[in-house]
Specification:
Elements: H1 5-10, E1 18-20, E2 29-34, E3 49-52, H2 57-66, E4 72-73, H3 78-81, H4 84-88, E5 92-104, H5 115-123, H6 127-134, E6 140-141, H7 165-175, H8 177-181, E7 186-191, H9 194-211, E8 216-221, H10 223-231, E9 238-244, H11 255-258, H12 276-292, H13 299-312, E10 315-327
Parallel strand pairs: 7-8, 7-9
Antiparallel strand pairs: 1-2, 2-3, 4-10, 5-9, 5-10, 6-10
């Protein structure tokens, strides 16, 4: 790496059972072959492995699967989720994932998105209906920030993360209602994807029905443009993001996304949340687990930190992800480990 960083980026070296076969083909494929000197317990039983890269992985990967050009996919178009199990039979598998889909509020627009409006927008979303109708039941409606298969996960945290029409309308009235919104549209940002667009349309329809908000504008960019815009505080409204676990601790869904030390450009706190009480609970939790080596000792502090976020609503949890795999009859004996 130090001798040739640019070359290393084209053909990186890892420590797993496969190695790259030459350099990676940008925006097309990553070709792998078994690493002959791998000493792990699960040596490859196949001669090669290719990852396809798609501009729209959901649509592109599934179309290639149907055409026989891809063997396994784990993301399906929304319109195929409801029929996939019947279509693929024993070549269909749904597994627990560790990820969250959420909408964030840019704290640098506090005047445009004060707490009562944030609370109203969160409580006006019927997460169960969204999951059942738009997502074909493929995910888990979220009323917390910590995925259910992690230590410290709770089904509910506080009212602000619950679907509640009357409470949403009361909070919206406290905000000042449609008069307080004025003539400016409510702007919703997402990275370009048919799935994100359908979810945004469904959520804003609920805001229209529950709160009467008619003036909504969608903005979307390719992910390569979207993330830098988030980091540069150039997002002008509510924005969609997701997060997957780097390590199996509730800390991973709190500190990187909401701690002041994780503010861009050094982290992923794209809401630019700055709540000292939250940071204090995170520090106490990290100190507790460092002292005992037991994650359970940190959980009460992480739960307290999550409570603080729920009261302040820097983001809206929408659903926890699940993986939906389907594969072609070219593959036999497939097993998936998470």
């Amino acid at each position: 790496f130090y001798a040739d960083p640019v070359g290393f980026e084209e053909a990186p070296i890892g420590n797993g059972p496969f190695q790259m076969d030459g350099v990676w083909n940008h925006d097309e494929t990553i070709n792998l072959v078994p690493y002959a000197d791998y000493t792990g317990v699960n040596a490859p039983a196949i001669s090669s492995l290719t990852f396809n890269i798609y501009e729209d992985v959901t649509a592109g990967g599934f179309l290639d699967l149907q055409g026989g050009a891809v063997d396994v996919v784990r993301t399906l178009p929304l319109e195929n989720l409801g029929t996939a199990e019947a279509e693929f039979g024993d070549r269909y598998l749904q597994t627990a994932d560790t990820g969250i889909y959420y909408y964030g509020f840019p704290s640098y627009l506090e005047e445009e998105y004060p707490l009562d409006l944030r609370r109203a927008l969160s409580m006006a979303i019927d997460r169960e209906l969204l999951n059942d109708v738009i997502l074909e039941g493929a995910n888990i409606p979220a009323s917390s920030l910590i995925p259910p298969n992690l230590p410290g996960a709770r089904e509910s945290v506080c009212e602000n993360y619950e679907s509640n029409v009357e409470a949403a309308q009361a909070a919206f009235a406290e905000f000042g209602g449609l008069e307080a919104l004025g003539d400016e549209p409510l702007v919703v940002w997402f990275n370009t994807s048919e799935t994100h667009a359908q979810i945004a349309e469904a959520i804003t329809n609920q805001w229209r029905e529950v709160l009467g908000i008619e003036n909504v504008v969608f903005e979307n960019l390719e992910f390569s443009e979207y993330l830098p815009k988030l980091d540069a505080q150039e997002i002008t409204g509510v924005f969609r993001l997701g997060w997957g676990a780097d390590y199996l601790s509730p800390l991973n869904f709190l500190e990187p996304l909401y701690a002041v030390a994780s503010t861009p450009p050094v982290g992923s706190n794209t809401t630019f949340t700055d709540i000292p009480e939250f940071d204090e609970q995170i520090a106490l939790g990290k100190a507790a687990v460092a002292e005992s080596g037991n994650l359970a000792d940190a959980v009460p502090f992480y739960n307290a930190a999550e409570d603080i976020l729920c009261e302040n609503v820097p983001s809206i949890p929408i659903y926890f992800t699940q993986n939906t795999y389907v594969w072609n009859d070219t593959v036999d004996g497939l097993s998936l480990i998470h």
